[in-house]
Give the backbone structure.
Amino acid sequence: MADLILRDARVEDAATPSDITVTDGRISAVGAAPPAGTCEEIDCAGRVVVPAFVEPHLHLDKALLDGLRANPDGTLAGAISVTGALKADFTHDNVRARARRVVEAAILNGTTVIRAHPDVDPIEGLIGVEVLVELRAAYAHALDLQIVAFPQEGVLRSPGTEKLLRAALAAGADVVGGCTYNEATLEDCRAHVELVLDLAVEHGVPADLHADFGDDASDPRYALAEFIGEQTARRGLGGRVALGHMTSLAGRPPAERARAMAALAAAGVAVVPLPATDLYLGGRGDTTAVRRGVAPVRELWDAGVLTACSSNNVRNAFTPYGSADPLDTALLLAQTGHLSGAADLRRVLRMVTYEAARVVGVHDGYGVRPGARADLLVLDTTAYDDIVLDRPERAWVVKAGRVVARSTRTRELLVP
Ligand SMILES: [Zn+2]
């Protein structure tokens, strides 16, 4: 028997509405539904239904710190320094309180899968991981939370971190993270990559690294794409490695950039631009023609590299903006990536839905079709091609067939 019917729903870009029937947490039919009165119903009134959003890269443990201490100079070094000092005062209680606010905002914004990157290092220890393991259980009705053990302070330059990464994986982290930009030398960056990918193999988990994040693309520490592709292929980790930022890719000469992207595509390594952070921290040393370092999205598409986008941080020294809304990130990426028109905007929408789901490995059973998980979003619009432009209200958020959030907004033009 059906558990939920979404009646008169426009399935993504369908020309006409139909009914979506949900049984045991999955979509059992798209088309004519059983008669009214047999189960809970949502009258979509012709609104668009899309699969719920996926945030593949979000730092919940250090969100909402900007009110405590802001970035003094807007640089990456400033962000690491300020956040490192604040992390010394982290407790389970204060991390939990801030992380919960962002998790709840994300659910209201229509996100039902988050890959979170809590810091794991001698300053924060396992506090972030432990809190998120707890929140993963507390919000399981609304959200699938993946936890990345993220060595923000580096591994080689921060002794004790490798041991902590192993402890984080034992404590419930699902993914091993990396942060190559915080190592001192090219040799250490490479050793960091190898160590992270070896841990992924050893523990049978995916890897998700912050990489090639810098303005100076001539610095080989920020040009690791080919090396990461090669090391991924060598370990048979294709389809299980994602790279956040990758800003310096845009600054490499075109032929070199094309080789790097071909290597990523061949190895099955995904790229996740984080435009709010990349734009805020990038180009701080430039005095004229300030660089706006965002990974070259259209070229990544054309090269066949799986590409999603995400919020990264919410209101801290790395990114003093954000509401954990994937549609805000999608619009920012479109505006700064020379992406426009219906075809581009549809692809950008896929970067926070289908392609983000592939990056975090939840693509099987994702979508609006019979057999898929009923993680669905009823958007307060009938115009599919305007979703990224309008960022409409998330009228109903459905997780595994259950309504987990509702939003309404009334706007009235008053005529005298
Ligand atoms: Zn990040």
Remarks:
- The chain has two domains: 4-51+366-406, 53-359.
- The CA atoms of residues 194 and 231 lie 7 Å apart.
